[in-house]
Amino acid sequence: MMRSRIVILAMLVLLLSLAGFGCAKKAGGPGDGSGTSWEEQERARLEQERALREKMGQAANELAQMINFAFDSSNLTPEARQILTRKADIMKQYPQIKVIVEGNCDQRGTAEYNLALGERRAQAAAQYLSNLGIPADRLSTVSYGKERPLDPGTGEAAYAKNRRDEFRATY
């Protein structure tokens, strides 16, 4: 009997203490002087987040534009330099974006030679971006050599498409 009274008393104390430590008031609710409800603030926050995702998506699309190379070369063409300059401007605008530069080659030559050439191509683009002020820790490179052709054909038009750097944006 005495034990049950102690248990009931302990539970009563526990309930009262929990009631005294209720949830903290959320900021931005009705009556906080801000003039907007929590729902309105949440809608505004979600709209800002959506707009940022849309801008970042557009930036990622622009960053994905490929550059091409001449046969057996890792030298950047004037057109490639223009494209890389636009990429650098975007990366400066969005410092959270990192880019992986993927070097590719056409199907001619040995696998080893093309891996090395693909790496030189990726490094050339990354170095150009770095020279334009993009920190090296936001850039990485990988070479796929001749393993990932865009066009599996064997003519010069197909080979020209496959001599490229691709760019993959990460966050």
UniProtKB/TrEMBL annotation:
- InterPro entries with a match to the protein in the record: Bact_OuterMem_StrucFunc, OMP_bac, OmpA-like, OmpA-like_sf, Pal, Pal_lipo_C
What is one process in the GO biological process aspect for this record? cell division
| Subcellular location per the Swiss-Prot or TrEMBL entry | Cell outer membrane
Q: Which residues form the OmpA-like domain?
A: 56-171
What GO CC annotations are associated with the protein?
A: cell outer membrane
Chief place where the protein resides: membrane
Q: How does it sit in the membrane?
A: Lipid-anchor
Q: Where is this region: Disordered?
A: 147-171
Q: Where is the composition biased (Basic and acidic residues)?
A: 162-171
- Would I find Methyltransferase among this entry's keywords? no
Alphabetically sorted, this entry's keywords are: Cell cycle, Cell division, Cell outer membrane, Lipoprotein, Membrane, Palmitate, Signal
Coiled-coil spans are none
One Pfam match: OmpA
Q: Which CDD domains match?
A: OmpA_C-like
NCBIfam families the record matches = Pal_lipo
Q: Which PANTHER family match?
A: LIPOPROTEIN YIAD-RELATED, STATOR ELEMENT OF FLAGELLAR MOTOR COMPLEX
Hey, which family's this protein in? Belongs to the Pal lipoprotein family.
Name of the molecule in the record: Peptidoglycan-associated lipoprotein
Organism equals Solidesulfovibrio carbinoliphilus subsp. oakridgensis
